[in-house]
Amino acid sequence: MIEEAAHDQYRCLIRAAERQRRLRVGFGAQTTSTTFSQAVTDSVRKAASDNNVDLVEVNNRYSSKTALRNADLLVRERVDVAIEFQTYENVAPVIAARFLSAGIPVIAVEIPHPGAVYFGANNYEAGIIGGRALGRWAKDNWTGVVDEVILLEERIAGPLPQARLTGAITGIREVLPEMTRANVITFDGKGAYGPSFDLVRKHLRKQTRKRTLIAAINDPSALGALRAFEECGYNSYCAVMGQNAIAEAREEIRKPGSRLIGSVAYFPERYGQELIPLAIAMAAGKQAPPAVFTKHKLVTSKNIDEVYPREKAAAAVG
After folding, report:
1. SS3 per residue for the chain
2. What is the mean pLDDT of residues 33-55?
3. Which residue from 57, 139, 205, 219 lies 20 to 30 Å from 275 (Cα-Cα)?
4. pLDDT tens digit sequence for 155-197
5. Is the pLDDT of residue 15 over 80?
6. All structural domains of the chain
């Protein structure tokens, strides 16, 4: 352990182990103002802590300009991998290019970015699940007679999330192949409660009561449409299907007689459990698949307490 270097001079051969640099993962959160995004953020934080990863976190604030600035910040921070959750399809190529030109691999959450590994919904499949459920409900409750179908989209997100609505129409028609006379209307509810509420309410004020199926891009849009029907006194003339199964939707589904007949679950509270290990593998140079899809499950009043048993237990205690 000790070596004589010269007369009366010695050197220690024991060397302190160099402190291993912790992996730095950049995370651009979509926003802090929606339940879904906050659930994703919380899960990423927990998974980073559990895996001893340094998380460099920024908030994109549901803004394309902010997302671009945050991408530059994460590049300057020299993160090892970037997890990007931002909604605007039009800036996705620019954001991806900035990371990739800096040699930083990218995981894109929910919205595809060129050259990035996609992580998120299997949108068409999720739409099919919801559409089939709407069709079955109409068959059981309206003998399959449907006058109108309302689709609530979010155009800024681009064509991939739009596949949820394409899948929804396909699923409805699989169950109700005779549904050819129904009027199909598409509104850009912007993926938000307020715009969806306003558009559907305005639409209802111009027409008589019609048996209407509503397929929404997400739960806030679904809840906005539902409230519009309730306000107009047309509640019994609608059946609504959401996407994401966020807490607000689950609360509505649990209400007896609610016309939010279901929502397709994405389980954002579990995203971090897959995102952080995926980032670690990519930082190590391991080959990643081009897309990693979340698992979906239809949540209705019949199975909600099985899918979310902790909420049932919490309600019982309360």
Report:
1. CEEEEECCEEEECCCCCCCCCCCEEEEEECCCCCHHHHHHHHHHHHHHHHCCCEEEEEECCCCHHHHHHHHHHHHHCCCCEEEECCCCHHHHHHHHHHHHHCCCCEEEECCCCCCCEEEECCHHHHHHHHHHHHHHHHHHHCCCCCCEEEEEECHHHCHHHHHHHHHHHHHHHHHCCCCCCCEEEEEECCCCHHHHHHHHHHHHCCCCCCCEEEEECCHHHHHHHHHHHHHCCCHHHEEEEEEECCHHHHHHHCCCCCCEEEEEECCHHHHHHHHHHHHHHHHCCCCCCCEEECCCEEECCCCHHHHCHHHHHHHHHC
2. 97
3. 219
4. 999 999 999 999 999 999 999 998 888 999 999 999 999 999 9
5. no
6. 24-121+269-287 (3.40.50.2300), 123-265+300-317 (3.40.50.2300)
